[in-house]
Every structure is written in structure tokens, then in C-alpha cells.
Amino acid sequence: MVRFELKAKDFATEITVFNSRQKNLSSEGAISNEHVSNSTAVRQALLNRGIRPEELPSDEDVKKVERRINSEDKRTLIDPDALE
Fold first, then answer.
1. At a CB cut-off of 8 Å and minimum separation 6, what does 21 contact?
2. CA angle, corner 17, sides to 12 and 20, nearest 5?
3. Nearest Cα to Cα of residue 8 among 30, 34, 48, 40
4. Exposure of 16 by Cβ count < 10 A (0-12 exposed, 13-18 middle, 19+ buried)?
């Protein structure tokens, strides 16, 4: 399911935002390492529950998802405070 995978990625990103603020991370490298660590932890949690995202059936057309993500990215650039 594409939607499921996006939510897992969103969750990892939100953990990164939270931890970056809590730990006062400011360098791109530190934030990137934090994000990789959080993505790995989320994936491991899914695997521990028997969920393999790459084996889930697609829920939506990939092009449609790409357009929606691009639209959301543009809105985020216009109003970054909306993420909070």
C-alpha cells in the first residue's frame, strides 16, 4: 500500500523533527543521520510485526501519489509552519 508506506515515512520524519529540536541538531549531517536512524527504527518496528512494506499491494497509482506529494511539498515551502 502506497499510503501505508507514506505514513511510515511521515512518522519517521516527524520523529526526526522532534528529536532535532530536542537535541538542538542544526547541521545537515547530524539531521540526516538522525533521519536515517529513525527510518531504520520504523522499518524494524514494521518488520517485527510481520509487515514488509515492499510486499504490500499498491493502493493508488504511483503518478497520482507523486503529483500529490509534489503539491504537498510546494505548500510546505510556502508555509513551513503548517508542519507544526
1. none
2. 115
3. 40
4. buried
CB 3 within 8 A of CB 59: yes
pTM above 0.90, yes or no: no
pLDDT in tens, 44-73: 999 999 988 888 776 667 778 788 888 887
SS3 24: coil
DSSP-derived secondary structure letter, 20: H
Residue 83 pLDDT: 53
* Cβ atoms of residues 3 and 61 within 8 Å: no
